[in-house]
Write a structure and sequence with these properties.
single chain; 258 residues; alpha/beta; 6-stranded mixed beta sheet; binds hexanoyl-coenzyme A; lyase
Length: 258
């Protein structure tokens, strides 16, 4: 399948989606978001894929929603369409693990798309921001909510009210990104992490992701109960027994369900 605004490649069991609209710093136009939604859905359905990576260019992961497309919209339209569209949510709703590999600008909707992924690996030149306030609006794809949960109220308010950018160091210190790597090795490092994840039992990684995500939705006691039950459910997996047997027999696990 060929796309106009993205490139999709497969490496072993990893699906790599590269946002590719360089003339607009990967601004997330309707066409790009539609293709992203389709590509994510396809990789989610593809049994040969165990982990996804979403990335952009060295200059920009994505500089936000497309301002030129939004400028003439009115309230009736955005309310009626419930803008943003479901395609934006596909990434947030993916059940397979997804890594965002961010170099350059991740602004507005770009930062929000990165935060929809399970974790962010940042290049040392990455810059994150929610600059919507500078164009008279506010984040609309989770920026006020996911950013606040990730970095806390003080930093989130600072970002959303001043519109300033955070560099990679501050983003790592604040808990927005899991690690920083040199920009030249970003894809290599992200693919290595993704291959590692995709090399495990897929139901196990999916259950782990579901359990961590639950922490954002429920109280601690409910979350712990959910974890206990999903932990119990892994004992129904052939791969759980295989993993433990492989450890005891000092050999590599031969996962059945990847
Ligand atoms: C449309 C964009 C764009 C955007 C950049 N471009 N960002 N087009 N929407 N969000 C286009 C520019 O118009 C220009 O094309 C080309 O990309 C290069 O951008 P420059 O500004 O010339 O590059 P530079 O000087 O290097 O500055 C980079 C930048 C700046 C700091 C990232 O482009 C910028 O501030 N962009 C907007 C960031 C932003 O406000 N994002 C939030 C959007 S609102 P032309 O052809 O004009 O030269 C949002 C809400 C999401 O995301 C809510 C959910 C839907």
């Amino acid at each position: 399948m060929s796309y106009e605004y993205i490139i999709v490649e497969k490496y072993d069991r990893v699906g790599l989606i590269k946002l590719d609209r360089p003339e607009a710093l990967n601004a997330l136009c309707v066409g790009l978001i539609g293709e992203l939604g389709k590509a994510v859905a396809d990789l989610e359905a593809d049994d040969s894929i165990g982990c996804l990576v979403v990335t952009g260019s060295e200059k920009a992961f994505a500089a936000g929603a497309d301002i030129k497309e939004m400028v003439d919209k009115d309230f009736q339209t955005v309310y009626r369409e419930d803008f943003i569209t479901d395609d934006w949510e596909v990434l947030a709703n993916t059940r397979k693990p997804v890594i965002a590999a961010v170099a350059g600008y991740a602004l507005g909707g770009g930062c929000e798309v990165a935060m929809m992924c399970d974790f962010i690996i940042a290049a040392d030149n990455a810059k994150f921001g929610q600059p919507e306030i500078t164009i008279g609006t506010i984040p609309g794809a989770g920026g006020t909510q996911r950013l606040t949960r990730l970095v806390g109220k003080a930093k989130a308010m600072d970002m959303c009210l001043t519109g300033r950018m955070m560099d990679a160091e501050e983003a790592e210190r604040s808990g927005l990104v899991s690690r920083i790597v040199p920009v030249d090795s970003l894809i290599e490092e992200a693919l290595a992490a993704a291959k590692k994840i995709a090399g495990y039992s897929l139901p196990a990684t999916m259950i782990a992701k579901e359990a961590v995500d639950r922490a954002y939705e429920v109280s601690l006691s409910e979350g712990l109960r959910f974890e206990r039950r999903t932990f119990h459910s892994t004992f129904a997996l052939e791969d759980r027994r295989e993993g433990m047997m492989a450890f005891i027999e000092k050999r590599k696990a031969n996962w059945k369900h990847r």
